[in-house]
């Protein structure tokens, strides 16, 4: 049975728990990722003489399992890893972590227990056949771990990882298309763990030739492992300082040039000149200017431009300061603009990256079309070239909070990529800015100079505050709603004709507290809600989810059907197509992708599977059981039991619901009786009739009641104790009936799974699980949009409902009352 992504992720993260305490995340990532690599290549290539990794005898994960509980387990794991590294030219890559380090892993039994548990966690994973065609399950798990490691490593040590969402944007705007050749090259001079290179590689249908350089030894090792886990063992990743000692050179000692480049270099590097004299740079990278000695941001940009072919394209993440800082950087910026190298600039939200909280931007380079955009100078006069412009996007507002960081959503990524690649100009978001306009601003590229992304100011109307009424200007500002709900407007507000004595103002006809209910009950809203589901129903037919087959690619599937959903809602009234798209992508990440991964590997019959959860002695269950039959616990692979119940056992569930109500009533009656008849329950100082039945924990129980009955003499107390006993018995009987009925239903559901036909399985998964959830969430989005309108109407009604004269009169009236009370009290 295929491993679900989220189950794999949780198992891997559990392995991290075994290492916490002796080291921080920047260190234990080396251990966890090495263990993941060893398990993967051992499962995948053991015994395969033609595998991309040769697994020699004595260097398998099975050998690690054999070393469990061995007092020399750390040394043995080191030797196993060393043997695999030696065989595959991976020395210095997979043998970075020392599994015999007592300072990090503990001494003696502590180390033995820790490593034994660590091996045990990976031992339970079968990674031999868990890569659906076209999808890198282990590679994605690696990315998952990298994100968590970066989060836990903190500001100083999280720079080895570029957030996946940002990497996706760079890969999609750099210029790679479906026609890009497999021989095309992609380069990252500061490749970190390699995520940017891999995202770019994925954009080409047949992949690219990958080249990277990384200065940090441990991080370059991570990148090499990452490439292998993503099935890119031929990727060329080298160690070294790109600026002072670039490794990728041609035979004539010039920089090797590439078709594409992507990079997230360290921000504001203060030591970029270490080992480098920029005035005598043999690679001629500083033709357009030398960056400041204490700030190397432009250094990497200039290196990349030099490293691109004449038709090359690049995308680089840099801090916002490169767009507007002066002096040497201003000169470089002006020269690059005049050369036409800068195709576009994308401003990102602040606090996205793990190494810094400052906002960053993506600068997109296009040398292929630079000549068309370049400014030539003849006799000191700049010539005008048609079409000279830079496309700018201000995407700083689109994100969600994710812990202490901000994160781009799927819809934010898609919108940025759509708008950039299609050159769409959207108000307060994107603009094609001419070089002439930029020149008038002294070649300052600060995005707010060209795009005002601020929300319009909400102005108060002083006349309305003084005389009442709601300004028609504010009502008209909701025109996009009134185009859809013209009659709702008439229901909510009086017209100018009805208020002819004071033109330009209207009265709200409905109390603020009743506005939303009035809108939801209106026929126009109901018609709008129905119309808004039509694109979803059209999408269902196009998506043809029932035709998902074994061997399909989940990533290709979600890419295709999500784009279809965007298209379906492209012209929808009031609803944002990107918000609807986000609903699908959130559900995909939470539930649907796991289901699809199982289906494309094991087929739809996986819906019939209910597997028993078995754990070794002393271990805890990693999963929450769906059914408990006798003493055995089971997990449904794809179809939760409540869906079976809803479709096939509704009458039985209704009977249990009735029994549950009776149980709840019995419990409530018992609790109320105890509270009314014990001083502990009333909080008073008087003893209740059940006070003597309190146990050591000041709690009345059936046992304490029975014990007190043997000693009680007072008739009233005996009567109270007997009534309490009766209520305890009634509650126990009610609970027993519920449990018995639930056990019968659970067994019936358990026995029903094997009887489900293929059509039954598809109906339960597609209709009852996937589509029911998606439709419910879309309906919620429809109501949310309407709630925005209702909130604004309510705000306007409350703002102007009490004009100044009425407020003044009210204050005068209240002042008179206070004065009269003071006079009556002799305090005039």
Automatic annotation (TrEMBL):
Superkingdom field: Bacteria
| Family in the record | Belongs to the N(4)/N(6)-methyltransferase family.
Q: Name one GO molecular function term.
A: site-specific DNA-methyltransferase (adenine-specific) activity
Any idea of its EC number?
Answer: 2.1.1.72
Report the Pfam families cross-referenced here. Answer: HsdM_N, N6_Mtase
Question: What reaction(s) does this enzyme catalyze?
Answer: a 2'-deoxyadenosine in DNA + S-adenosyl-L-methionine = an N(6)-methyl-2'-deoxyadenosine in DNA + S-adenosyl-L-homocysteine + H(+)
Give all residue intervals belonging to the N6 adenine-specific DNA methyltransferase N-terminal domain. 10-122
What protein does this entry describe? site-specific DNA-methyltransferase (adenine-specific)
Indicate the enzyme's highest-level EC class. Answer: transferase
What broad taxonomic lineage does this protein's source fall under? Bacteria, Pseudomonadati, Pseudomonadota, Gammaproteobacteria, Alteromonadales
Query: In what residue span(s) does the DNA methylase adenine-specific domain sit?
Result: 135-457
Question: What InterPro entries would the database entry show?
Answer: D12N6_MeTrfase_N (IPR022749), DNA_Adenine_Mtase (IPR051537), DNA_methylase_A-5 (IPR003356), DNA_methylase_N6_adenine_CS (IPR002052), Restrct_endonuc_T1M (IPR004546), SAM-dependent_MTases_sf (IPR029063), T1MK-like_N_sf (IPR038333)
Q: Which UniProt keywords apply?
A: Endonuclease, Hydrolase, Methyltransferase, Nuclease, Restriction system, S-adenosyl-L-methionine, Transferase
The answer, when asked if Transferase is one of the entry's keywords, is: yes
Q: Which GO terms describe its biological process?
A: DNA restriction-modification system; methylation
What PANTHER family does the record tag this protein with? Answer: SLR6095 PROTEIN, TYPE I RESTRICTION ENZYME MJAVIII METHYLASE SUBUNIT
Q: Is Phosphoprotein set as a keyword in this record?
A: no
């Amino acid at each position: 049975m295929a491993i679900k992504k989220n189950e794999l992720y949780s198992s891997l993260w559990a392995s991290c728990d075994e290492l916490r305490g002796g080291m921080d995340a920047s260190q234990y990532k080396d251990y966890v990722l090495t263990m993941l690599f060893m398990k993967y290549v051992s499962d995948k290539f053991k015994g395969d003489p033609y595998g991309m990794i040769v697994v020699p005898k004595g260097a398998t994960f099975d050998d690690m399992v054999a070393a469990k509980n061995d007092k020399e387990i750390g040394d043995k794991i080191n030797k196993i890893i060393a043997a695999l590294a030696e065989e595959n030219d991976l020395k210095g890559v997979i043998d970075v972590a020392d599994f015999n380090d007592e300072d990090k892993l503990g001494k003696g039994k502590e180390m033995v227990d820790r490593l034994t548990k660590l091996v045990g966690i990976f031992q339970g994973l079968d990674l031999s056949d868990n890569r659906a065609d076209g999808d890198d399950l282990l590679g994605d798990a690696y990315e998952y771990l990298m994100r968590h490691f970066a989060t836990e490593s903190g500001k100083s040590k999280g720079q080895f990882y570029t957030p996946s969402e940002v990497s996706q944007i760079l890969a999609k705007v750099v210029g790679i298309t479906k026609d890009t050749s497999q021989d095309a090259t992609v380069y990252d001079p500061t490749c970190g763990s390699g995520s940017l290179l891999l995202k770019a590689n994925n954009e080409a249908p047949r992949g690219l030739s990958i080249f990277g350089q990384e200065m940090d030894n441990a991080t370059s090792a991570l990148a090499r492992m990452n490439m292998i886990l993503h099935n890119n063992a031929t990727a060329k990743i080298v160690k070294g300082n790109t600026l002072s000692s670039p490794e990728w050179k041609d035979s004539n000692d010039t920089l090797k040039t590439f078709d594409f480049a992507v990079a997230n270099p360290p921000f504001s590097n203060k030591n970029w000149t270490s080992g480098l004299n920029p005035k005598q740079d043999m690679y001629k990278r500083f033709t357009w200017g030398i960056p400041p000695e204490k700030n190397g941001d432009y250094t990497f940009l200039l290196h990349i431009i030099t490293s691109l072919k004449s038709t090359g394209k690049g995308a680089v993440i840099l801090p916002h300061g490169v767009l507007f800082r002066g002096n040497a950087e201003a000169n470089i910026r002006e020269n690059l603009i005049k050369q036409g190298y800068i195709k576009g600039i994308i401003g990102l939200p602040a606090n996205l990256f793990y190494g810094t909280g400052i906002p960053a931007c993506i600068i997109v380079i296009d040398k292929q079309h630079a000549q068309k955009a370049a400014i030539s100078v003849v006799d000191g006069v700049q010539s005008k070239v048609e079409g000279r412009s830079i496309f700018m996007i201000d995407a700083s507002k689109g994100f969600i909070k994710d812990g202490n960081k901000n994160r781009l959503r799927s819809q934010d990524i898609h919108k940025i990529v759509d708008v950039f690649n299609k050159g769409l100009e959207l108000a307060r978001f994107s603009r094609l800015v001419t070089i002439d306009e930029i020149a008038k601003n002294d070649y300052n590229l600060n995005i707010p100079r060209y795009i005002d992304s601020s929300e319009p100011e909400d102005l108060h109307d002083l006349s309305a505050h003084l005389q009442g009424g709601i300004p028609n200007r504010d009502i008209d500002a909701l025109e996009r709603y009134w185009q859809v709900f013209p009659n709702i407007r008439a229901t909510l507000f009086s017209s100018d004709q009805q208020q002819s004595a004071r033109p330009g103002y209207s009265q709200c006809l409905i109390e603020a507290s009743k506005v939303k209910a009035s809108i939801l009950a209106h026929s126009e809203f109901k018609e709008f809600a129905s119309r808004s589901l039509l694109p979803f129903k059209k999408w269902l037919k196009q998506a043809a989810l029932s035709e998902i087959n074994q061997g399909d690619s989940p990533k290709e599937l979600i890419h295709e059907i999500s784009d279809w959903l965007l298209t379906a809602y492209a012209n929808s009234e009031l609803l944002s197509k990107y918000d609807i798209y986000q609903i699908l992508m959130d559900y995909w990440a939470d539930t649907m992708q796991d289901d699809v991964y199982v289906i494309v590997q094991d087929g739809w019959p996986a819906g019939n599977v209910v597997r028993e959860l078995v754990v070794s002695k002393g271990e805890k269950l990693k999963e929450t059981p769906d059914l408990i039959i006798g003493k055995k616990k089971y997990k449904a692979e794809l179809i939760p039991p409540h869906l079976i119940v809803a479709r096939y056992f509704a009458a039985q569930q209704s009977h249990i619901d009735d029994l549950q109500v009776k149980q709840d009533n019995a419990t409530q009656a018992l609790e109320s009786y105890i509270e009314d008849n014990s001083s502990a329950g009333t909080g008073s100082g008087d003893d209740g009739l059940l006070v003597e039945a309190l146990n050591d924990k000041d709690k009345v129980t059936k046992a304490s009641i029975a014990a007190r009955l043997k000693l009680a003499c007072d008739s009233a107390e005996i009567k109270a104790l007997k009534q309490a006993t009766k209520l305890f018995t009634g509650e126990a009987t009610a609970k027993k009936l519920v449990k018995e009925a639930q056990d019968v239903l659970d067994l019936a559901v358990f026995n029903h799974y094997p009887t489900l036909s293929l059509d039954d399985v598809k109906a339960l998964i597609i209709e009852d699980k996937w589509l029911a959830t998606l439709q419910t969430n879309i309906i919620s989005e429809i109501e949310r949009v309407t709630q925005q309108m209702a909130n604004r109407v309510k705000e306007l009604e409350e703002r102007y409902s009490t004009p100044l004269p009425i407020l003044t009169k009210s204050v005068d009236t209240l002042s008179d009352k206070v004065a009269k009370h003071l006079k009556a009290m002799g305090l005039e």
